């Protein structure tokens, strides 16, 4: 097997249709660092760019849109699938987090069949002059190696021991013995207040994933805007070259087409009556965002209280009509996406100050609510767009 270990699952559903069977396609699943690095090195030798989408699985259309974009832009894409214990505080939902590996594979299989072909681009990995060749068919390659080389998509699904080789306690950070990456400043606000170890966990695992995959490009969702913006800061501050900070792409939030609820793996926790209430966060952010561009001299506080009152009204309504559903406001914040500073006073004064400094005047309104035991987050961009 030429050093590459992969678990190959035939998803065609046809008996006897293995890798050579007609109509069957398999997505290579790499579980070890050795397998991943071998695959990555082959890509480098062939001069092929690698796009990377870190996930925790339980895939939905939001994840698929990230993967589709990477597949359409790069010859090779790796989706990582790892439920990272370190970003869950001991009191949080690590154990109940949805794990749906088989259906994730089915979704990816369907996606691969329907996705468009990529535009081949050349990787710019700094290092020795690797020979650049065009990707070939499996020709003289062994079946396993050829299969891996030919697939535009691979999954890296490591175990805890692969990602945390020192093992030991992974959730209680006071007792964790290894290396962590902290995100001071921007990591201490909003999500960082409600989930104090969340960004340490995310920054640590993403640093490890970037070291392991060395992706040319990485894709994250706007749904977790603070996470994505902080990861760009991490790439800049830790001088990471794979990916370079400008090659960390943030793609728009994928929403339910009818009520615009942001898709999220945790939506699976919602009971039907809770699911009916969940779009209130989007409604609150939308009402507040309308104030942003009015030009009247409103303050950040005005914007926040508009959103907060939509949530309070819904809470009032459900206390009468939907008894049994609990809605709790966690936070709403309007903030500067570069500094993560809250914008609380006059928006016009803030915009003028930014313009005078030659800086952009885009902001973000973000928030979180609890619907029953499920914590939902969402955000809208004010005056700018993600790439
Ligand atoms: N609705 C969405 N639109 C666009 N990107 C998304 C969406 N939901 C998740 N993502 C992105 O997918 C990547 C993996 O996220 P993750 O696996 O945690 O899924 P999730 O739905 O965000 O789960 P959770 O419910 O735990 O927040 C992240 O970059 C995240 O921002
Ligand atoms: C980026 C990430 C995969 C790190 O575990 C996770 O926080 C997520 O899925 O958003
Ligand atoms: N999508 C962010 C992962 C988490 O909430 O743990």
Question: What's the architecture of the largest domain, going by CATH?
Answer: 3-Layer(aba) Sandwich
Radius of gyration: 22 Å
Q: Could you say how many structural domains there are in total?
A: 2
Count of DSSP strands: 9
The rough form would be described as: globular
Explain what the structure shows:
With 387 residues, this protein is α/β, with parallel strands linked by helices. The protein has 2 domains: 223 residues, 3-Layer(aba) Sandwich (Rossmann fold), CATH 3.40.50; 118 residues, Pantoate--beta-alanine Ligase, Chain: A,domain 2. Helix content is 35%, strand content 14%. It has 12 helices and 9 strands. The strands form 2 sheets. A 6-stranded parallel beta sheet has the order 1-4-3-2-5-6, with helices on both faces. A 3-stranded antiparallel beta sheet has the order 7-8-9. α7 packs across α8 and α10 packs antiparallel against α11. The longest helix has 22 residues. The radius of gyration is 22 Å and the shape is globular. The relative contact order is 0.12. The protein binds adenosine-5'-triphosphate, pantoate and beta-alanine. The site of adenosine-5'-triphosphate has 17 residues, from α2 and β5.
Q: Topology, pairings included?
A:
Blueprint: E1 29-30, H1 33-45, E2 50-55, H2 61-73, E3 76-81, H3 101-114, H4 143-150, E4 153-156, H5 160-163, H6 191-194, H7 198-213, E5 217-221, H8 225-237, E6 248-251, H9 272-277, H10 280-292, H11 300-321, E7 327-335, H12 347-356, E8 363-371, E9 374-382
Parallel strand pairs: 1-4, 2-3, 2-5, 3-4, 5-6
Antiparallel strand pairs: 7-8, 8-9
Helix pairs in contact: 7-8, 10-11
């Amino acid at each position: 097997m030429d050093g590459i270990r992969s678990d190959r699952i035939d998803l065609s559903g046809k008996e006897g249709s293995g890798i050579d069977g007609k109509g069957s396609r398999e997505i290579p699943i790499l579980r070890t660092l050795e397998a991943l690095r071998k695959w990555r090195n082959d890509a480098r030798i062939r001069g092929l760019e690698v796009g990377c989408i870190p996930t925790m699985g339980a895939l939905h259309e939001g994840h698929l849109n990230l993967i589709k974009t990477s597949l359409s832009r790069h010859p090779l894409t790796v989706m990582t699938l790892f439920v990272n214990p370190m970003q869950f505080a001991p009191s949080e939902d690590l154990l109940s987090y949805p794990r749906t590996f088989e259906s994730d594979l089915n979704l990816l299989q369907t996606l691969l069949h329907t996705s468009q072909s990529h535009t081949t681009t050349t990787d710019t990995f700094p290092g020795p002059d690797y020979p650049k060749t065009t990707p070939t068919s499996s020709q003289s390659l062994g079946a396993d190696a050829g299969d891996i080389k030919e697939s535009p998509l691979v999954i890296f699904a490591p175990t805890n021991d692969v990602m945390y080789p020192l093992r030991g306690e992974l959730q209680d950070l006071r007792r964790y013995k290894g290396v962590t990456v902290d995100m001071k400043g921007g990591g201490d606000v909003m999500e960082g207040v409600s989930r104090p170890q969340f960004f340490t966990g995310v920054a640590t695992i993403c640093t490890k994933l970037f070291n392991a995959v060395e992706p040319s490009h990485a894709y994250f969702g706007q749904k977790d805007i603070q996470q994505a913006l902080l990861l760009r800061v991490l790439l800049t501050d830790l001088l990471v070259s794979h990916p370079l900070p400008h090659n960390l792409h943030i793609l728009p939030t994928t929403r339910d087409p009818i009520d615009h609820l942001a898709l999220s793996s945790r939506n699976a926790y919602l009971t039907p009556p809770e699911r009916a209430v969940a779009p209130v966060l989007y409604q609150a952010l939308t009402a507040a965002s309308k104030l942003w561009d009015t030009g009247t001299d409103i303050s950040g506080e005005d914007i926040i209280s508009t959103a907060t009152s939509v949530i309070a009204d819904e809470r009032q309504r459900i206390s009468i009509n939907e008894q049994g559903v609990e809605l709790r406001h966690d936070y709403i914040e309007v903030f500067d996406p570069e500094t993560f500073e809250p914008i609380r006073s006059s928006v016009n004064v803030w915009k003028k100050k930014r313009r005078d400094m030659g800086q952009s005047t885009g902001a973000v309104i973000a928030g979180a609510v609890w619907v029953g035991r499920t914590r939902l987050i969402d955000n809208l961009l004010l005056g700018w767009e993600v790439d």
